[in-house]
Write a structure and sequence with these properties.
mainly alpha; Serine Threonine Protein Phosphatase 5, Tetratricopeptide repeat
Length: 109
C-alpha cells in the first residue's frame, strides 16, 4: 500500500487507507503527515471526500480532540448530507446529546 501511495499521488484511496492504518496502530504523526498535503487539494470525488473525512475524524479522535472531529463531521455532512456513514459518527461523537434529545421528545408524547 505504501508503494501504491508513493507511485500514484492522485489516487487518494491508498494514501488515506495507509493513514487510517497508521492511526489504528497509534502512529499519529505519520498519519498526519500523509493526510496534511491532501487538505489543500482543490477537488475530491464524493467517495474520496468521505474517506478523507473519516480519516480526519479518526485522527482527531485519536488525538482526543472531539471538537475538531465534530468540525470535520459537520463539513462532511454539509457536502454529502445523505451519506449513510455519517450516522455512526454522529452517534459516536454526540450519542449522549442525541439520546437526551430523543428522551425529551418521547417524554412529550
Amino acid at each position: 500500500m505504501s508503494e501504491l501511495s508513493s507511485n500514484y499521488h492522485d489516487y487518494l484511496f491508498p494514501i488515506i487507507s495507509l493513514a487510517r492504518l497508521k492511526i489504528k496502530k497509534g502512529e499519529i504523526a505519520e498519519a498526519e503527515a500523509l493526510l496534511k498535503p491532501l487538505i489543500s487539494r482543490k477537488r475530491f470525488q464524493f467517495s474520496e471526500f468521505s474517506n478523507f473525512c473519516t480519516a480526519q475524524i479518526e485522527l482527531f479522535m485519536a488525538k482526543k480532540d472531539k471538537d475538531s472531529a465534530r468540525k470535520w463531521l459537520q463539513m462532511w455532512e454539509n457536502l454529502d448530507p445523505e451519506n449513510p456513514d455519517l450516522l455512526p459518527w454522529k452517534l459516536k461523537l454526540d450519542g449522549d446529546n442525541l439520546l437526551n434529545k430523543l428522551k425529551s421528545m418521547v417524554s412529550g408524547w
